[in-house]
Amino acid sequence: MMLHAPSRRRPAAEHADGGVDGVLATSIGNGEDLGPAVRHAFEGGKPDALLHQLRNIVKKKEVEIEELCKLHYEDFIVAVDELRGVLVDAEELKSMLSAENYRLQEVASALLVRLEELLELYRIKKNVTEALRTLKVCVQVSKLCLTCNTHITNGRFHHAVKILDLIERDYIQYTPFKAFRKVIEKQIPALKLHIEKKVCSEFNNWLVHIRSAAKEIGQLAIGQAAAARQQEEEKRARRRDVVESSSAGGEFLYTLDIEHLDEDLVEFDLTPVYRAHHMHTCLGIEEKFREYYYKNRLMQLNLDLQISSSQAFLESHQPFFAQIAGFFIVEDRVLRTAGELLSEGQVETLWETATAKMTAVLDNQFNRADTASHLLLIKDFVTLLGATLARHGYKVAPLLEVLDSSRDKYHELLLSECRKQIGDILANDTFEQMVIKKEYEYNMNVLAFRLETSDSAPTFPFIAPFSTSVPDCCRIVRSFIEDSVNYLSYGGHINFYDVVKKYLDKLIIQVLNAALLNMIYTANVDVSQAMQVAANIAVLEKTCDLFLFQAAKLCSVPLRLVERPNAGLTAKSVLKASQNSAYNALLNLIDSKLDEYLARMGGINWTTDDATENATNDYVHELVAYLDFLISTAEQILPLEALYKLGVGVMTHISDSVVAAFLNESLKRFNLNAVTCIGNDLKVLEAFADERFQSAGLGDLKKDSSFRDCLIEARQLVNLLLSNQPENFMNPVIREKNYGALDYKKVATICEKFKDAPDRLFGSLSSRNTKQDARKKSMDMLKKRLKDFS
User: Fold this and answer.
1) pTM score, two decimals?
2) What ranges does the record give for the region Disordered, renumbered to this chain (predicted)?
3) Highest mean pLDDT, choosing among 37-51, 243-257, 318-332
4) More confident of the two residues 718 and 138
5) How far is CA 9 from CA 46, 61, 67, 584, in A?
6) CB 502 within 8 A of CB 408
7) Of 57, 644, 650, 668, whose CB is crowded by the most CB atoms within 10 A?
8) Following DSSP, what letter does each residue of 432-490 receive, concatenated?
9) Residue 255 pLDDT
């Protein structure tokens, strides 16, 4: 049943404020925030109005509630009655639930006890399973640790590091025991550090060992290079022999001789290096080891590059360079076989460091060197060092450039030594013909330098046309060529023949030729010694081709290139010029000796009354005896060309001296008898000249004039003075034919001194035959015409 309460009308006041109250009521009904309205009321200073409005709204709501309750009060009563019935039913249900709960508690209590026991068992099982798993992990880790310790103890560091990495990667994070895990985590770095120290200790021992073994390694490698060079030189010598034999016209079979050079590398152990590098790589510190290796090897290299001040470089250079060679042979092997332990740039840096030091040392030592042989020994070893290291890929050009730059110094030392040796040889030479008593002496002193004068076998004792200084000087020149080639070989130049030729010219010209000229001009030598010096120069001039061929042979230059025109030594023409100087000096000595004999012409009685037909002066026999000795000696020593020059010079000097005797101012007059006697002297000299010219075989030279022809001026002068018609001298045709060698002025001076009558008291009153008168008239006519001509 619905209850309807009576409606009431609202007061008028409510309608008056309905506008504002409606807004607030709507806001409250919608659950809106009244804060802004409250703030606005207080800010506007009208809080009382707001409170009044709120009270009105409260009153409105209370009225609505009251009306609602009046409208539904019957429904409320019914609902309350129903609610009381529900409460009764709830009580009954509660009693039933309580009874059932009691019965359930009684039944389930036993089950709960069993459940708790089961849960406890499950918990125990879980703990045991976890414990077993944990123990299994710990046992595995312990076994790995034990195995790792065993490997470390036995030095199997690679396996130990692998196990440590396995523990770190697969086990350490699953180890449940914190204390155990901390112990393992702490020991792993310690073990790795221990392994690193052990490996570094082995590597340090290797560093010490390899430095001590480097010298032996270098010596063995350089020994291999020396053996290879020796085999190459032997092949080259065989090749030269074949070429020379083939050029001689014989038939030869060329065979290819294949020899396998033992190129086994020097053995040394790099296992500690490989092991240390690998272990550091496994430990993840490869870069650290690379730096450590390079730093230590650089320090060792700097120590190896230090020169010992307590020992001469000549004695220490081989160990010094062998040590460096061994160092870089090891580094080359490490570069090629040790992975990325070394880079090419690092090896090049090491090599540049060593090269700079070695070149500085060589420059210093070469500048201080005072012996050519010492410098050659050092150079030979340096070239072997270069050949050894070049096989391993190192750039040895700077070392060879140092050797090339010192070649002038070496040859100056070599020339200085040769100058002293040649000076001593010439000073000790007696300049007498060399007497060879044995065949081996002949082979050693004659055949060795192709100084033989005949193809037939000599009889011993053999008297050579040269003195002992010639083969001795030839040996010095030959040794110089060999030393020069040895120094220039295996250097920076492939074709060094021109260099050897230049220094060979320098030796012969500036040393040998200069010493011979010094001997000619400054030494106190007699005629025979001067003749021997001239003969020696002639022999040495012929050996120039031999020396050039020897240089070409040692330089492996084809002989056809040496035999070309203008390809010879300049020294040959210089020695040729020196021969002329020697001959001139010899002639000056001979002329001085001849003057001693010819000076006796001053003791001749130029106005003698003795008219013996074949009378001669005493001096001429002594002069001929000396000339015979002189020519005989020259025949044994000098070549025909030189002998001819000597004879021509001697006879020309005698002729000039005879003419000069007539021109001598101390000679005021001479007569026919004196001229006749001089004519007889000339006959003796002419006979001697013809005989020696023919006996010496000088006719084979096909010269334009003989020894007799050199006496022509003296002969024509005597013939003119003995002529019955001396005035024919003024006839051009007769003069050209019979007196072409005479000079007008000389003839005029001599004729003025010629008095045909003997120098005696009242000589002008003596009787004369017609022939004498005619000769005198003709002579007077000649004198007059010569005077008019002048």
Assistant:
1) 0.69
2) 1-20
3) 318-332
4) 718
5) 30, 15, 12, 180
6) no
7) 650
8) -PPEE-SHHHHHHHTGGGT--S-SSPPPSSEE-SS-THHHHHHHHHHHHHHHHHHHHTT
9) 36
- Tell me which amino acid residue 583 is: Y
- With vertex at residue 37, the alpha carbon angle to CA 34 and CA 41, rounded to the nearest 5 degrees, is 135
- The contacts of residue 621 (CB under 8 Å, 6+ apart) are 684
Phi, psi of 435 (to 5 degrees): -105, 120
Residues recorded for the chain: 790
Residue 693 near residue 685 (C-beta atoms within 8 A): no
> Checking DSSP bridges between strand 435-436 and strand 462-463, what pairing results, if any?
antiparallel
DSSP labels, 280-296: HHHTT-HHHHHHHHHHH
- Per-residue pLDDT, averaged over 391-400, amounts to 89
Give 192-221 pLDDT, tens digit per residue.
Answer: 787 888 888 888 999 999 999 999 999 999
pLDDT score at 258: 32
Checking if the pLDDT of 15 tops 60, the result is: no
* 3-state SS class at 632: helix
* DSSP-assigned beta bridge partners for residue 435: 463
Query: Nearest CA to 164 among 283, 339, 84?
Result: 283
What are the tokens at 470? 């010639």
Q: How far is the C-alpha of 778 from the C-alpha of 467, rounded, in Å?
A: 58
Burial 659-681 (b: 16+ CB within 10 A, else e): bebbeeeebeebbbbbbbbbbbb
455: exposed, middle or buried (Cβ count in 10 Å: 0-12, 13-18, 19+): exposed
646: its two tokens: 């000597």
Integer Rg of the chain from CA: 67
DSSP letter for 174, please.
Answer: G
Using CB atoms within 10 A of its CB, is residue 503 exposed (0-12), middle (13-18) or buried (19+)? buried
Mean per-residue pLDDT, 569-586: 87
* DSSP helix/strand/coil, 314: helix
